Amino acid sequence: MNQKNLKLAVIGLGYVGLPLAIEFAKSRDVVGFDINKQRIKELEKGFDRTNEFEPSELKQAKGLFYSHSMKDLAECDCYIVTVPTPIDDQKKPDLSALISASSIVGEVLTKGNIVIYESTVYPGATEEECAPVLSQKSGLVYACRTKIKDSNVFYLGYSPERINPGDKKHSITDITKVTSGSTPEIANLINELYKSIIKAGTYKAESIRIAEAAKVIENTQRDVNIALINELAIIFERLDIDTKAVLKAAETKWNFMPFQPGLVGGHCIGVDPYYLTHKALQTGYKPEIILAGRRLNDNMPSYVVERFIKLMLNKNINILKAKILVLGLTFKENCPDIRNSKVFDMIQSLSAYKCTVDVYDPLVDKKYLTSKLHCRFVTSPEKQIYDGIILAVKHDIFLKKGAKNLKKYGTLNHVFFDLKYAFSKSDSDGQL
Length: 432
Hints:
With 432 residues, the protein is an alpha/beta fold. It folds into two domains: 3-216, Rossmann fold (3-Layer(aba) Sandwich), CATH 3.40.50; 300-432, NAD(P)-binding Rossmann-like Domain (Rossmann fold, 3-Layer(aba) Sandwich). Helices cover 37% and strands 15% of the residues. It is built from 14 helices and 15 strands. It has helices at residues 17-24, 37-44, 55-59, 70-73, 96-108, 125-138, 184-195, 208-238, 243-250, 272-282, 289-298, 300-314, 343-352, 396-406, and strands at residues 8-11, 30-33, 64-67, 78-81, 114-117, 141-142, 153-158, 177-179, 202-204, 323-327, 356-360, 376-377, 386-391, 410-418, 430-431. It has a seven-stranded parallel sheet with strand order 3-2-1-4-5-7-6, with helices on both faces.
């Protein structure tokens, strides 16, 4: 079997699947599948709601065929699953989309086919959760590393996504890709498949479980480090020490890691650690450091609001009648993705103080917002009416406006809180 002969289908055309499908489709035919019919219609018209690709870039993928029909999947023999794997309200892994996608693929799977997963999961999930669904739906046998006499088999692979939404400097081809497969032969084939598009090269892991574990610790490590810096920021605020100045001084040492305090949301750093802790708890071990970091980071929205309210009280602003403007709603800068954004939590905390909250984010389309928003979404804030302004997301559009222009939204006696260290300390009434 040669990777060049594989007929690819990418299941799920979000932040992970679309870039992958586009890159493969520059040199081969690819079926880009998504159950969201509206998403398919938009892409066919050359519109990407994630703002990752311009119409001209979509056209470069000449071999990409968009579809929401399972009939089109039946013509393929290699399926790459890139659906979301969030957490539920109890902060436990939600594999519903992954199981649903596996069921869809299982319906069209035939012997010798390969299914590669890119979705973030806990170690073991691909073989323990997905493989049984594929077997049950297809009637085929999962061919793992042990020898299987039955030729009526399918194969698995796992290659964790490393997409960074909103980052135009580090595209999918510029980031080393970890690969793995259920047998040595399939592992080699999958590695060669990705190597055909990844300029940065690939790293073939020894097993699917190792590749899964490698992915889930990448963001867990970042989460724990950010939690440490967040805790330091809390301590330094009590000591009346400028956290930004401390970090700047510490960064002069060659091996100091330059993390910054802030809100930790999104569908990676704020989610992945719970996948690892879930599996750890199943083994009877309760993680201490990982869960402590998660608790601290999850509490940061409330801490930010407390700091902000104190600054307003220090200026004798009536909190109960205060009008607040929050600049930015997405989980990170220059990206329209609002999934698991901790700005929502911050807005909810502000609402608990009976403040009137407006949120302004030109990157977010109002039609994608839900009733969860405890505020008014404005497309053009009025000037000189807000008692408090919080710069929550460091979008380029806000940086270009500058602190002086952003503060024009405030009344003569207002608080401007720069959560993201976007401007100098003298430009704001407070920073994290």
